[in-house]
Amino acid sequence: MTALSDHVDRYLQLRRALGYRLRDHERLLASFVIFLEEEGLTTLSVAAALDWAGRGASVGDLGRRLSVVRGFASYLVAFDESTEVPPARIAPSGWARRTPYLFSDEEVADLRDAASELRPVAFGETMATLLGLLAATGLRPGEAYRLEGDDVDLASSRLVVRDTKWDRSRVVPLHETTVEALGDYASTRRSASGEAGFFLGRSGGPLSSAEAARTFRRLCASSDISAPSGRRAPRLYDFRHRFAVATLRDWHRAGLEVESLLPVLSTYLGHLAPANTYWYFEAAPELLEAVASRAASSIGARR
């Protein structure tokens, strides 16, 4: 094993111990080390990283391959000062963040009302409760689909989200109104022999992502909810963005210390660090208004 290969192994072990899966990193970094060895290079340089990354299949591959090398180089420079870390903007990132659709309170209510008109009635209750839960907690839709009856602890006002992203589980506290809504659904939902899923689909089995997404598109159409021209259509995942933005807005309106609370929001959403949570923030008018109002109050108080 070469020194670089040894560093790659330690780097991957460290990152995985922090909860990252790094599914592609091991393969890509092994390829990069082989490339360096074949070129007779013992030091990681920007030129070598660009040469190797440029052998990907597309511009997106170039950005992703460089991102993998950049993370490794940032680690390696602590052991070899001659290591060059590729700059972040040296090539397209390969990740294009699309503007999320931020549902208003009125639109959430409209969607839930439309869901209550679905047939059979039990399936309408499923979709209405699911939409309410996503709006109230910011769960990933897949986390909601996988909930089982035992994961919904109404007595303790919490959900247990098991084996989700990064193979982690977490406890999600619930507001009393959310507990009440989940309790109503739990007491009226159809029983399905042998089925442990909390949310049930039209046929009585566990709700699938495909069925939920397909039904959600119908609900958006019937509620006249659509994205502006040129933007991606609303998704169930956009409720997660809505929750993050609404939480930030409410904290500013309440005059709370937002920076110190960000780790709380990250933990609630199941993120490893606040940096992962920033992806979900959007410059929504209501949020900007709350920030501006708070800033104006602070300036006025100092005069």
In order across it, which strands form the biggest sheet? 1-2-3
Q: Tell me, briefly, the overall form.
A: globular
Structural class: mainly alpha
Order of helices and strands: HHHHHHHEEEHHHHHH
Low-confidence stretches: none
How many beta strands in the DSSP annotation? 3
Folded structure, characterized:
The chain is mostly helical and 303 residues long. The chain folds into three domains: 74 residues; 118 residues, Orthogonal Bundle (hpI Integrase, Chain A); 65 residues, no CATH class. The chain is built from 13 helices and three strands. Strands 1-2-3 form a three-stranded antiparallel beta sheet. It is globular, with a radius of gyration of 24 Å. It starts with a helix and ends with a helix.
Summarize it.
With 303 residues, the chain is mostly helical. The protein has helices at residues 3-17, 25-38, 46-53, 59-76, 105-115, 121-137, 141-145, 176-188, 209-222, 238-253, 258-269, 274-277, 285-302; strands at 152-153, 158-161, 170-173.
List the helices and strands and how they pair.
Layout lengths: L2 H15 L7 H14 L7 H8 L5 H18 L28 H11 L5 H17 L3 H5 L6 E2 L4 E4 L8 E4 L2 H13 L20 H14 L15 H16 L4 H12 L4 H4 L7 H18 L1
Antiparallel strand pairs: 1-2, 2-3
Helix pairs in contact: 1-2, 2-4, 3-4, 5-6, 6-8, 6-10, 10-13
Keywords:
single chain, 303 residues, hpI Integrase, Chain A, three-stranded antiparallel beta sheet, 13 helices, 54% helix, 3% strand
